[in-house]
Amino acid sequence: KPVPYPITFDGTVGRMLAAADRPYWRPAHMHFMIEAKGFKKVVTHTFVEDDPHIDKDAVFGVKEPLIAHFEKLNGQQTEWRSVYDFVLVSEETA
User: Fold this and answer.
1) Which of 24, 51, 61, 78 gets the most CB atoms within 10 Å of its CB?
2) pTM for the whole thing?
3) Model confidence over 2-44: pLDDT tens digits?
4) CB 4 within 8 A of CB 52
5) Pairing of strands 67-68, 71-72
6) If DSSP codes are grouped into helix, strand and coil, which group holds residue 34?
7) Is the distance from CB of 17 to CB of 25 less than 8 angstroms?
């Protein structure tokens, strides 16, 4: 299961975040690049729904449709599953 992490907050970025009163944390997320012949490539990410930083993403990347549910597998602390449906758009209709 992904975990949250801080972005670099020194220098210009740190000053900008401080001036905007923004946190420097990214909520836990996973990146995806999905390709299929005849369809537009999708590059996106999904966020862990119960992350404490979900409402305060430093880069404003969290959108409701990208929030994903994670569940433990077999009661284990280290094995998780997240089911998410990605929708591809045909190159002909794009």
Assistant:
1) 51
2) 0.84
3) 999 999 888 998 898 899 888 999 999 999 999 999 999 999 9
4) yes
5) unpaired
6) strand
7) no
Distance, in Å, from the CA atom of 28 to the CA atom of 46, rounded to the nearest integer, reads 9
Note the pLDDT tens digit of each residue in 38-66. Answer: 999 999 999 999 999 999 999 889 999 99
Distance between CA atoms of residues 93 and 28, nearest Å:
33
Alpha carbon 86 to its chain's center: 14
Question: 22-56 burial, b for 16+ CB within 10 Å, e for fewer?
Answer: ebbbbbbbeeeeeeeeebeeeebebbbeebebbeb
d(CA 20, CA 51): 22
DSSP class of residue 90? B
